Amino acid sequence: MAEAEGCSRSYSLKAEHELRVEVTDGRHVYISLREGQAEVFGSELILGEKLEMRSQKFAVYTWHGCRIELSTDAGALEDVTDVVYEADETPMVAYSGVHGVLEERRHSANQASGQGPRTIVVGPVDAGKSTLCRILLNYGVRSGWAPTMVDLDIGQGSITCPGTIGATPIEAQVDIEEGLPVEVPLVYFYGHASPAENPEMYKFLVDRLASLLDKRAQSNAAVRAAGMVINTMGWIDGLGYTLLLHSIEALKADVVLVVGQDKLWSQLDKHYRTNKDIQVVKLTKSGGVVARPPALRKQARVNRVKEYFYGVRGDLSPQSQTVNMSELRVYRAGGGPRAPSSALPIGSEPVADPLRLAPININSDLLHSVLAVSHATEPEQLLSVNVAGFLFVTTVDVDRGTLTYLAPCPGPLPGKLLLAGSLKVFFE
Ligand SMILES: Nc1ncnc2c1ncn2[C@@H]1O[C@H](COP(=O)(O)OP(=O)(O)OP(=O)(O)O)[C@@H](O)[C@H]1O
């Protein structure tokens, strides 16, 4: 049978327009800038360079007009994309205005050897928070800074595996094909997909991350002046709102960007009205943001774990290793009682201590779990020390007393202590 031929289509975009492309899951399309200038979420396209966009939902935006070509290896564009359309209304002018304000603050901080803007992006799910963070980070990089990206969204994990919070300096524009750089991020393992599982532990880890970032900023004037861009989770009601306030304060955010919900903006604006150090700004959500139903969100989590082990392009070779269970020491937080009943007032129930670490028996419950390998040398340090990497449990053989895991690279583990949560994913 003859192979299907590829196709290409050209799009001429007017100034301040964008081409929105939703690549079908599991498919890819190529984009290439043919004339003018354009960017994808703040990362500039290079004239003539052909980029492969896999399963991504993205927009090519132009400030002054451009010509873009979309092409396939085989078959029609419609076979690999859910939708492609041009939009003339975008919030990019407002986003660029925010960047202008952050720039002024960075320059003032630089001159005074002070702290640059610590910007936190908040809003409901599917508001375009991660996208706005990426645009602001890219604009910061293009202006010569290396701002710190902080990710508090444990559900998706834009820096590394889901179930974590972390930070990484952004020194170059975010790679359009690969996403955020994953080298040397500072990562803490929370281990669950929702902060509701153990809110005290979530707060503890945010505090820990914040204090390390403070230390880093204190010792480096350039890092301090460049500031931070902080991405948050989309849970903004009840406990979610309380955790959001905690994150704003722990990370000493002074610019709060609210995307996609007037109610949240109004709540935060009221809450910080008397605080002259915190500016709350309302921003419009882009009409291009693609909503993900819970099933797709779950699938995105699985894909993210898979990417950690196999790479975005599937070009990494994780190692499968089988070890005796006795060689591993796995702990979980939040297990044991806070105090024995006898020590509590009559009638009160012992409450589980959310930060207590307890060793766990290795059995089939751990199958398909993501485990964090800690840099900690003692179990007591497990929550306060960042993680070195992750393992994925593929087989537990209770009869033989062995456990088989996937690790990103061969050789001995960088640490002997492991942390487990409730995060499980299923992939072949
Ligand atoms: N202008 C746009 N055109 C096309 N796709 C877009 C545009 N803006 C954002 N998207 C896509 O919409 C999806 C959701 O956006 P994003 O991840 O930024 O939202 P979020 O608020 O961070 O989501 P979450 O609820 O997971 O926190 C992403 O796949 C993103 O690439």
TrEMBL record:
- Pfam family membership, one: CLP1_N
Q: What is this protein called?
A: Protein CLP1 homolog
The UniProt keyword set, sorted, is: ATP-binding, mRNA processing, Nucleotide-binding, Nucleus
Give the species this sequence originates from.
Answer: [Myrmecia] bisecta
**BP-aspect Gene Ontology terms:** mRNA 3'-end processing; tRNA splicing, via endonucleolytic cleavage and ligation
Q: Where in the cell is it found?
A: Nucleus
Q: Which residues bind ATP?
A: 18, 57, 126-131
The keyword Zinc-finger is assigned to this record: no
